[in-house]
């Protein structure tokens, strides 16, 4: 279960609030997060952080299925997690990891997260993002079991020179 403390800072580059399960807004935010550094989507909060009312599980499930159909390719996510707010409301959070694929909406728009908004990209920006995506995300992933002794001192010295 997620700690509700992360909600206090409000929306930003890695946190988005959506007041109701709107498939279009969910799809736009999934694509934006996947195309940038990832983030957490919270359904049930207004932009100012106030709860927007009770969220029905059925409505949320339906909205996420519809949102998934609007994304090409589908955005890989975890599962929705209920989060209890300080005001006693239950909201739902979904973690969206950064993707190595370039994601677009069914209408052809490619979005990225820019501060608190999902921003569409132009042609040159899409090409730049696509070329960065094809290189993978290996630099941000730790290598399991790797230790300092696994590095070649000679290679490090050459790199730093």
Could you describe the 3D structure shown?
This protein is α+β, with helices and mostly antiparallel strands. It has one domain (4-160): 2-Layer Sandwich (Methyltransferase, Cobalt-precorrin-4 Transmethylase, Domain 2). The chain has four helices and eight strands. The chain has helices at residues 23-35, 57-69, 123-133, 153-160; strands spanning 15-18, 39-43, 71-72, 81-84, 90-96, 104-105, 111-114, 117-120. The strands form three sheets. A four-stranded mixed beta sheet has the order 1-2-5-4, covered by helices on one side. A two-stranded antiparallel ribbon has the order 3-6. The longest helix is centred in the N-terminal third of the chain and has 13 residues, at 23-35. The radius of gyration is 18 Å and the shape is globular.
| DSSP, total strands | 8
How many structural domains can be distinguished in the coordinates?
Answer: 1
Helical content band? 25-40%
CATH class membership = Alpha Beta
Rg (CA only): 18 Å
What is the architecture at the second tier of CATH?
A: 2-Layer Sandwich
Number of helices, counting only DSSP H or I runs of 4 residues or more: 4
Which helices and strands occur, and which strands form pairs?
Layout: E1 15-18, H1 23-35, E2 39-43, H2 57-69, E3 71-72, E4 81-84, E5 90-96, E6 104-105, E7 111-114, E8 117-120, H3 123-133, H4 153-160
Parallel strand pairs: 1-2
Antiparallel strand pairs: 2-5, 3-6, 4-5, 7-8
């Amino acid at each position: 279960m997620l700690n509700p403390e992360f909600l206090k800072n409000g929306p930003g580059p890695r946190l988005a609030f959506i007041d109701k399960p709107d498939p279009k807004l969910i799809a736009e935010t999934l694509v934006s997060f996947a195309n940038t550094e990832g983030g957490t989507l919270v359904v049930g909060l207004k932009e100012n952080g106030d709860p927007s009312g009770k969220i029905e599980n059925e409505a949320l499930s339906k909205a996420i299925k519809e949102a998934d159909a609007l994304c090409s390719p589908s955005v890989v996510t975890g599962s929705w997690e209920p989060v209890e707010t300080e005001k006693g409301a239950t909201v739902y959070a979904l973690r969206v990891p950064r993707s190595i694929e370039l994601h677009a909406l069914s209408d052809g728009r490619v979005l990225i997260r820019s501060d608190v908004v999902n921003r569409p990209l132009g042609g040159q920006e899409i090409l730049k993002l696509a070329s960065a995506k094809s290189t993978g995300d290996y630099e941000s992933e730790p290598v399991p079991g790797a230790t300092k002794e696994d590095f070649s001192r000679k290679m490090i010295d050459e790199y730093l020179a």
